[in-house]
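Thread: Modeling a multi-component assembly for a lab meeting

Hi all, long-time lurker, first post. My supervisor asked me to bring a structural picture of a complex we are working on to next week's group meeting, and I have zero experience with this. I have the sequence lines for every component (383 residues in total). Could someone generate the structure of the whole assembly? Inputs are pasted exactly as I received them:
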Amino acid sequence: MSISRNKLLSFGGAAGAIGIAAAVARVACPGGCPTCTQCATHVVSAAGSTLAVGAALGGSYLAKKRSSDRSDDT
Amino acid sequence: MIVVHPSDASTPPAPRAEALRRNRFTRFGFFFLGLAIFYAPFALLGRLVGWIFPASMPGTWVPDVHTNCMRMPVGWLAQPWMWGWMGNNPLYFTPIILLPIAAVAAGPLFCGWLCPAGSFPEFLGRIVPDRFKWDFKGMVEITSVRYGFLVGFLIVPFVAASVCCSFCNFTWMQNTVSALFGNVAPWLYISTTGVLTIVIWIFLLGMFTKGGRGWCLFLCPAGSLMSLASGVTSRFKWLPRVRHDATSCASCSNCEDVCPVRAIDVSKPHESPGAAPMPQVKVNQLLCNVCLDCVRGCPRGCLRYGRAQ
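Re: Modeling a multi-component assembly
Sure thing. I ran the full set together rather than chain by chain. Output:
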């Protein structure tokens, strides 16, 4: 069984996105987010999480689309 | 079992709409049972455990869904000073040990039947026509992204902090239930993380995603862990899972269409000379949440929940 490049990229991108989201949360919240939910910098943390998740989904979409285009060409 | 001649199988039968509707209605009832079991002000599971183990509920502490949180215990594994706190409360082991064990035994029934945070956007999404929804199937590698996020959630506590607790649908389901019962304080935090979390959970990955379970698919580590436990062990034929019997399948794709977690792939029968006219229906056990909509909706009864034959 072979694992396609798309799947590996999607997997790595998603894992990395959570890493980035956590890093942003760490920088945004001096106490080392999470749990308090009161700090105004949570918006930075939330934006970081949202962008990272969006980037992971978008990256998986693009990788899949490119490989599908390539297989159509051949 | 109905055996259909291959020539009959070319005519797609009508879906069993009534059985499907009844299954969804039953699941809607379980939605409220899940609220009563896990969410404050009821939190029956927490109260039961507190009654059996009084030391786990110090002072006036009222259990809520966070008492069954998965991310906190995983985070605490990276924080040795929290081990004592974690060890004092058996409820913290529910999502990381008991639910995966239950998923091995019977599939992730919690996700399909008892999780209010997952079913809330799914049921809300029924009022939105499908043409306004994303269908992530075919767009992204759902399984890879899902388990990539899970690995991220499990690793980050050991190398950084964690993803914000407010970036969690359980939190906002609890806040919503609390607000309905008079405690609106958690909603005051909505100006920050909550706005984005609710927009993603309820709208982008909920009502406007086909199936309504986008958050469950991508961003719920508890659900992913249960599905992983269920999927990996699904090859043991004696364990009950959603199974497909190709004998009478007409490959009408009804199961594929009704699946809220986009776990079913249907390919049409081979039409080359000599090839058996058997459709290929694959249930992705790493995504399936055992809601049984496909089983009830299959017009020929080709899908069932049970052991492999």
